């Protein structure tokens, strides 16, 4: 007998062990009556314990196997023993809030924008429902308002039973059931009628609040992630902590964070552009300084400690704009960025081939064209590079 069917608030009960058998690393126990909810219908099982002869045995899983409810435990309990079952109150209440909230939200999507719920997932961290079509942000907001109005109406949630055949002609039924025989119905006054075996609250007010957290396109429809009751409160607290921490860092009010971050991004973009312009000007100055000590041979190897790949390219291009030159510039800490370039008239030199040769000898990856090539991750001294460039 499943006690949660008729009283989802029952958290302690007496029962007699009717079966006990090995299962996995432990055992599974069946009782003549149980208030434990087994994983089924998209809802997770209860947790809790069984007390027998003064011993407490934790229930780590509850399984629905061919119509029987099995309680998974670490130690066996002999058949015929009387036990007291006690169910974890917080977890049960959380699932009752999420599950009833899902009924209310699904029915609201039906009523407000004719979007059918195709499947439901009620997880430990995340609850989702999948709608048969895409819904807009405006439709979601209207549905959320509608659902919360039903919550705050504090309407009764009634469980009753009906024959599957008479149920077929019930116009209020939200979704046809594939079941036969007696069907358990969950009736939310003037809002939703669904065939369901889960645990629900007794009045909609107990759900507290329903919040749509996110929507995403999913299989031609929409996946809606939602939070009810205590989970919505916890999530609000997490958001508030994150936003307040950001606001304190910026010394502004929490609601000013979006504008302030947008302004910071714009400031950063302008600063990056300014830094880029300065780096280009600096590399031109460095190139001028290098040109003043250009050897007779026209081959120059030099290291620019502050230059990144972009600054190296700018300096090398500047240097080879005069005829007769071949340059190899490294930049930054080791392993270095490397740029090899040649003047247009130095067709006897292939910069790409030189870079590949240097990488083969001193590590790094790169390549390029005969007039300009570059690499990253090169570990070579100026003397070693000079030798490679001459060879
Ligand atoms: Zn349900």
What attributes does this structure have?
391 residues; alpha+beta; seven-stranded antiparallel sheet; five-stranded mixed sheet; 8 helices; 31% strand; binds zinc ion
Tell me about this structure.
The chain has eight helices and 19 strands. It is an alpha+beta fold and 391 residues long. The chain has a seven-stranded antiparallel β-sheet, with no helix packed on it. The N and C termini lie far apart (90 Å). The structure holds zinc ion.
How do the helices and strands line up, and which of them pair or pack?
Blueprint: E1 12-23, E2 26-31, E3 48-52, E4 55-59, E5 61-65, E6 68-73, E7 82-87, H1 89-113, E8 117-122, E9 127-131, H2 137-152, E10 157-163, H3 164-167, E11 182-188, E12 192-195, E13 210-218, E14 221-228, H4 229-250, H5 257-292, E15 299-304, H6 309-319, E16 326-331, E17 336-342, H7 351-362, E18 365-368, E19 372-378, H8 382-390
Helix pairs in contact: 1-2, 5-6
Bound molecules: zinc ion.
The number of helical segments is: 8
User: What characterizes the major β-sheet?
Assistant: 7 strands, antiparallel
User: What is the H-and-E element order?
Assistant: EEEEEEEHEEHEHEEEEHHEHEEHEEH
Major sheet: order of its strands? 4-3-7-1-2-6-5
- Helix vs. strand class: alpha+beta
Please give the share of residues in helix. Answer: 25-40%
Shape: elongated
Termini, distance in Å?
90 Å
- How big is the Rg? 36 Å
Mean of the pLDDT scores? 94
